[in-house]
Every structure is written in C-alpha cells, then in structure tokens.
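hiii, so i know i said id send this last week but things got crazy w the move. better late than never?? heres the sequnce for the chain we talked about at the cafe, plus the structure i predicted for it. fair warning i was half asleep when i ran it
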Amino acid sequence: MSKADLGDRVRSEAPLLFVLATTAAFLVFGKGWLGDLSDPLWLALMFAWLFGTILWAALKVVHHADMLAERLGEPYGTLILTLAVISIEVLMIASLMFVGDNNPTLARDTMFAVVMIVLNGMVGLTLLLGALRHGEQSYNLQGANAYLSVIIPLALLSLVLPDFTQSTPVRTLSGFQATFLILASVALYGSFLLIQTVRHRGYFRYDDAALEAAPDAATEMAPDAASDVALEHGHHAQEPGPVPLHAVLLLAYLVPVVLLAKKIALPIDYGIETLSLPAALGGFVVAVLVLTPEAVGAVRSALANRLQRAVNIFLGSVLATIGLTVPAVLAISLATGKPVELGLDDTDILLLVTTLLVAVLTFSAPRTNVLQGVVHLILFGAYVMLIFAP
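okay and structure toks below
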C-alpha cells in the first residue's frame, strides 16, 4: 500500500474520531445532559446529536461490511451487510427495552416499521427509480420466492398470531408459546441460510451471472449508470483492504452504536411518555436508523441496473429482522420478566396482509416496472399516515 493510499484510508476513517469522542462524552457527561429533557430545544439538540452520530457510525459499519462483501463475494457479501445492520437493530431494541418501562410494544412496532419501510418504502423507491432509468429490470425469481416463502409465515406467526391466542389476556405469548416461536424462527432462518449460502446459492446471483456473460454491458448504459455498476463491482473510490482490517473497523464503529443506543433511548422514551408522541414512533425511529444505510445500497444497486443485489438487500433485511429480532426480544423477555406485546392492532394487521399480498404479486414476475413502485410507495404513505392518525 502506497503512502498516498494509506493517507486516503486514514482520512476516510476520520469519522471514527468524532464517533469515539461523542461516545466518551456521553459516557462521562450523559447522565447530567440527559437527566432533564424538559427544555424542547435541549431535547432536540440531544436527540439530533445522538441520532446523527449513530447514523454516521451505522453508515460506516455498512461501508466496511460492503468492503468485506467485495472480498468474499455474493451471497456472503449481502449476508454480512444484513447481519451487521440487524445486530444494530437488536441491540438498540434491547437498550430501549431496559430503559423504558411503559413501552412493551417497542419490538413489535420496530419489526412492523421495518416491514413497512422495506417492503413498501424501500421496495417502492427502488423499483420506481430503477424503472425510470432502465425501463423494466430483471432479477432471479427463485431467490425472491425463497425470501417470501419464509417472510410470510414468520411475519404472521410473530405479528398476527398473538392477537388470537387464548393463553394470555393481551397481545403477548405464554412462556411455552414464546419458546416455540423462538425455535421456529431460528429453524426457519437457519434453513434459509443453508439454502442461500450452500445448496442453492445461484438463486441469489442473477445479475452477477448476466454481467459475467456480457462484460461490456456496463459500457452500453448511460455514463452515470455505468459508473454506478463500477461502484457495485468493487471499483470504489477506495479499494477494499485486507479482511482483518475491515473486520476490526466494523467492530470499532459497531461498539459505539451499541453504547449510544442506550443514550438515545432516553429522549425517545421521554418523547413518548411525557410529550404523548405516538408509541409507534419509537419503533419507526429505530427502523429508520438501522435501515438508512441499506436503503442507500439498494437504491444505488437499482440505479446501476443490478436489481438482484437490491432484492437481496431489502428482502434479506425483512427476513433477518423478524428471524433474528423475534428470538432475541423473546429471550430477553423470558430472562428479565419484561412483557413484550407482539400482536398488531386490527388496522396494522390489514396493512400487513395487504403489503404481503402486494409483495407476492410484485415478485411473481421476473421483471419489474414503474407501476409496482408507485403501488408500494402509496402503501408506505398509508403506514406513515396511520402512525399519526390511527
């Protein structure tokens, strides 16, 4: 590595100093800073500082996960990206669970927010922008169907079934039911990983194969599209470094996210409990924090006419969120005795079922178009509207 390359790499990691400094400041002074949030300006400042720092760190986590992806290839690359983001989500939910006493629906709201943001917001925006640039786009239909075949039962078992069980009086699960759901979630997600990484890896590599068969395809696109393809193939402004380097830096950014998650839980919890903000807003904020980096990656992939990578990102996010978050929060609930309500309200159940049905229709054909993107964005708008006007 030349001195110039080393200097560029060091400068690119300058955010780590800010993230570490912010983490140290809140560890030392956070109790005083967050002890009294009655001043709206101070509350907004603390929330904005923490939100911005966590988001910046999360973007760097995803950057280094993406660099690892370039070294390891698909489908491992997307899997690393997804697991890095979901680990942030699970840790933030756990932190908020321990801080807030009156929000047993946080995990449910977060998972529902992820499903709505991804399957409607991210999918809609990705398909719309990709179709506006490239017309119709192709992907591996078998891979999308594999995702949905696991997402649908996990979503319904986790977010709908608790409304209809009789062992508990509210939208919770008994200890036996929670244990079953933990095992079922782990079994389904583990089976999917076996398919994705061992037995049927080809289901998730449509665009890679297409570009390998036609290496000049990128040059036939518009110049800006060709440059995006180059980015997706690893021709980043900064080439990937050694695997151990990116693994260490990924952890260096991830640890502050974990530590700051407990701090941002305080202004979020204060806003919900004291300012009477919608309870679902806490889950929405967590989902936006953890999904923004993946949303950027999915949109870039679609604009580069690499829809398969975008499909892997957004469907993988939903699957990992439900498949990993449900066991984690239920295990925390069983261990600590803190109640967790997973069952959705009737309105949200209708929106969830509609979203799943539309997703099945969207990914039932091997090519996508503008109309599908518009439909998903309208459903996302309905979700946001119902947060503030249930």
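btw The mean pLDDT is 80. thought thatd interest u
miss u guys!!
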